[in-house]
């Protein structure tokens, strides 16, 4: 358990603020890097913990959550930690039952079929500050345990992503059921998105109060709403909108500090974004499958990536979450090579 002492808000001084400087477009000695899903099934030490605890038990127990969050940092020279959790803790907090099924992914026991289901499945009186306290406790504990080594990222799913899961009940390629709601139950959809938006803002604010130093939002819809409310204390905000190639201009012109690019975004698109939005920090976007390549080939791809993004206003990452069968040696090589090559470029 986390004693009050550990939860006090005086945090150790930060020894590595590279990623925060990159978000502000400041001078850096080397390009910062972190990896989406950096704590996860490709690490034997994670699997070992998962053999004893269910996925959501890990999320709900601050000491275990902290341990899992720090595991990748023991192996790799990462420039940020991301709190171990899932975007689906939000629907859970609202009263929906979500289970993590091995080899399948998350499943909702009772997805929303029609608007009337909202009343029975969602408790609108729930408060993010109360229901998700275990996340804030985990963040505070992890921030202390990090001892200033690097910043801690908090995150949330964005409203449309969460609404889609709540209706589909699981991951979906087409989001057809959820999109059908948008067209057939227009007002109810707006209302649900609005409610989720408010809940998510509270959730993000609480994460910052608990010690999160950056925030990443997964997905894009309704982000304007999130930001127009200006309720999020000033920490850098990263938007990672998968498959949002058609919306990159919009994302770069809204008030996000960092736009995360998935691995399908081409070099030409990246160059155009760089020219049009020199003050936006870009994050990405190595194909997770590139980690299967030889280190020789990997080095070439990393070089190309740094050439295209440049070293300023840039955070290196994969273009999507790392896969469970990723080669651990190559993950280390990826991190070290980003640092080595970018350091050389900046020095000369
Ligand atoms: O990045 C991190 O290391 C932080 C932890 C994190 C997880 N999920 C842990 C996780 C984050 C940021 C997420 C985000 C998330 N979760 C998203 C948005 C990003 C994306 O992938 O598009 C979504 C859509 C989810 C919902 C979710 N959770 C799915 C679809 C799955 C199954 C897919 C899979 O890889 O199995 C999960 C499970 C999940 N979330 C795992 C982890 C480590 C693996 C489950 C396990 O350990 O048993």
What's the tally of helices? Answer: 17
Helix-strand topology string: HHHHHEHEEHHHEHHHEHEHEHEHEH
Strand order of the largest sheet: 1-4-5-6-7-8-9
Tally the structural domains. 1
Question: On the 0-100 scale, what is the average pLDDT?
Answer: 94
The separation of the N and C termini measures: 50 Å
Helix/strand/pairing class, anyone?
alpha/beta
- What coarse outline follows from CA principal-axis ratios? globular
CATH architecture: Alpha-Beta Barrel
CATH class: Alpha Beta
Main β sheet profile: 7 strands, parallel
Percent of residues in beta strands? 5-15%
Question: Rg from C-alpha positions?
Answer: 20 Å
Distinct ligands, ions and cofactors found in the model: coproporphyrinogen III
Fraction in helix = 40-55%
Low-pLDDT segments: 1-7
Number of E-state strands: 9
Q: Write the CATH fold name.
A: TIM Barrel
Give a structural overview.
- By secondary structure, the chain is α/β, with parallel strands linked by helices.
- It has a single domain, classed as Alpha-Beta Barrel (TIM Barrel), CATH 3.20.20.
- Helices cover 48% and strands 11% of the residues.
- It is built from 17 helices and 9 strands.
- It has helices spanning 4-7, 18-23, 44-50, 55-60, 62-75, 89-93, 116-121, 128-131, 133-146, 159-168, 176-184, 186-210, 223-228, 248-253, 267-276, 295-309, 328-347; strands at residues 81-82, 98-101, 105-108, 152-157, 214-218, 237-240, 258-260, 281-286, 314-318.
- The strands form 2 sheets. A 7-stranded parallel β-sheet has the order 1-4-5-6-7-8-9. A two-stranded antiparallel ribbon has the order 2-3.
- Helix 15 links the parallel strand 7 (258-260) and strand 8 (281-286).
- The longest helix has 25 residues, at 186-210.
- It starts with a helix and ends with a helix.
């Amino acid at each position: 358990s986390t004693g009050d002492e550990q939860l006090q808000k005086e945090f150790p001084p930060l020894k590595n603020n590279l990623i925060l400087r990159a978000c502000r477009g400041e001078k850096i000695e080397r390009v910062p890097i972190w990896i989406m899903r950096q704590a996860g099934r490709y690490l034997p030490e994670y699997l070992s913990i998962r053999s004893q605890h269910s996925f959501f038990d890990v999320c709900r127990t601050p000491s275990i959550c902290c341990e899992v969050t720090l595991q990748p940092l023991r192996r790799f020279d990462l420039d940020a930690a991301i709190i171990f959790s899932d975007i689906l803790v939000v629907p859970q907090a609202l009263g929906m039952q979500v289970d993590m099924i091995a080899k399948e992914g998350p499943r909702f026991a009772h997805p929303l079929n029609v608007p009337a289901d909202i009343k029975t499945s969602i408790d609108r009186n729930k408060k993010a500050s109360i229901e998700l306290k275990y996340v804030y406790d985990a963040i505070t504990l992890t921030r202390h345990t990090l001892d200033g080594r690097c910043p801690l990222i908090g995150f949330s799913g964005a409203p449309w992503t969460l609404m889609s899961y709540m209706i589909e009940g699981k991951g979906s390629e087409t989001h057809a059921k959820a999109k059908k709601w948008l067209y057939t139950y227009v007002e109810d959809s707006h209302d649900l998105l609005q409610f989720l938006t408010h809940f998510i803002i509270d959730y993000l604010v609480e994460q910052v109060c608990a010690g999160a130093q950056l925030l990443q939002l997964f997905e894009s819809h309704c982000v304007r709403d999130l930001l127009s409310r200006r309720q999020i204390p000033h920490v850098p905000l990263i938007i990672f909108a998968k498959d949002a190639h058609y919306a990159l201009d919009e994302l770069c012109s809204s008030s996000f500090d960092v736009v995360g690019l998935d691995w399908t975004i081409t070099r030409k698109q990246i160059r155009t974004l760089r020219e049009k939005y020199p003050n936006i920090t870009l994050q990405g976007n190595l194909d997770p499958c590139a980690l299967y390549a030889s280190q020789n080939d990997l080095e070439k791809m990393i070089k190309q990536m740094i050439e295209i993004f440049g070293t300023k206003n840039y955070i290196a990452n994969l273009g999507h979450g790392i896969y469970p069968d990723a080669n651990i040696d190559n993950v280390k090589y990826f991190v070290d090579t980003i640092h080595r090559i970018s350091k050389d470029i900046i020095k000369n």
